[in-house]
Every structure is written in C-alpha cells, then in structure tokens.
Design a protein that fits this description.
Helix content: over 70%
Radius of gyration: 21 Å
Number of domains: 2
Number of helices: 7
Largest sheet: none
Order of helices and strands: HHHHHHH
CATH architecture of the largest domain: Up-down Bundle
Length: 167
C-alpha cells in the first residue's frame, strides 16, 4: 500500500514539476510549483520526518510562494504565446534525457547509507523530532543561527529603505 501511495505522489510530483516549466502563464507555473512543494512535504511525512514536512509547507509552499505570486502580479508579466523556441526545447530535452540516464545509473549502482549520528531511531521517536531539532539549533548551531537572523534583519532593513520613496 505504501508503494502505491509513493508511486501516486511521485506521478503527481513529476506532472506538477513538468507543468512548472511548460506553463505559459507564470501564475499557473507558481501554482504547479506549490503542488510540487506539497508532494515533497508528503515525502518527508513518509520518511517519518513530520517537522521537516511542516517547515516545507509553512516556509516554501506558504511564505516563499506567496512572495513569488505577489511579485509576478506586481510585475504584470505578459506572455506572448505565439513565440516558438524549438531550439530551447531540443536543448532542454537533451539535458533532461541525460539527467534521467544519470539518475537511473545512480539508483542502480548506489546503496542506501546507514543512519549515523548521536541519536538512534528509538530516541528520536521517544523525544520527538521538533525537540531534538530545537536542542541542536540552540546549542551546537547557535552562532550560525544568530548570524542568519542578523543577515535577515539587514535584508529587511535594506528592503524597507529601497522601498521608501523619500528618506
């Protein structure tokens, strides 16, 4: 049953990923990308990582895609549907073909890595994903976390300054 569900989600993810690059309307491409993000969140749930699935939905499918849709709407992008770019399609098809061949070779020749780290599967289930992620962020990775927050603050201040007409 899990294999069938995985195959269905994979089919939906592939179709929505193809729609992202083939849709003429940018809003439709953004909606297809949101569907791809939801499929990725479903993979995280299937891998028993609910925290990552929630972050995927909130950050990418929520905040980032809202920002992208607003940008597309503000730019008012017009698409000329009559233009044909056959050379770009051929080039993209060749790259896609070799990417699929590379993926098949990797899947056939590779093997799954054994889980490593200080936490066993039983400990993760006992303590919880979110608590372990929070503990690691605020102990082992506190400095990178604080540097990231300062960089985001500087980016927000820069965006406000650039958006103002008069200082």
């Amino acid at each position: 049953m899990e294999t069938l569900f995985f195959l269905i989600i994979t089919l939906v993810a592939l179709i929505s990923a193809i729609l992202v690059i083939t849709c003429k309307n940018p809003i439709n491409s953004a909606l297809a990308l949101i569907m791809t993000f939801f499929c990725l969140a479903t993979y995280y749930v299937m891998l028993d990582a609910p925290f990552m699935a929630a972050v995927q939905v909130m950050v990418y499918a929520g905040a980032i895609m809202v920002l992208m849709v607003f940008t597309i709407m503000l730019l008012n992008i017009r698409v000329d549907a009559t233009k044909k770019h056959s050379h770009k399609l051929i080039f993209a098809s060749i790259i896609g073909f070799f990417t699929v061949i590379n993926l098949i070779v990797m899947l056939v020749k590779s093997r799954a890595a054994l889980p490593t780290g200080p936490y066993s599967g039983e400990m993760i289930k006992m303590i919880g994903h979110t608590e372990l992620v929070g503990r690691e962020i605020f102990t082992s990775f506190l400095l990178p976390f604080e540097i990231t927050s300062i960089l985001l603050l500087v980016a927000i201040i820069g965006a406000v300054i650039l958006a103002k007409k008069k200082i």
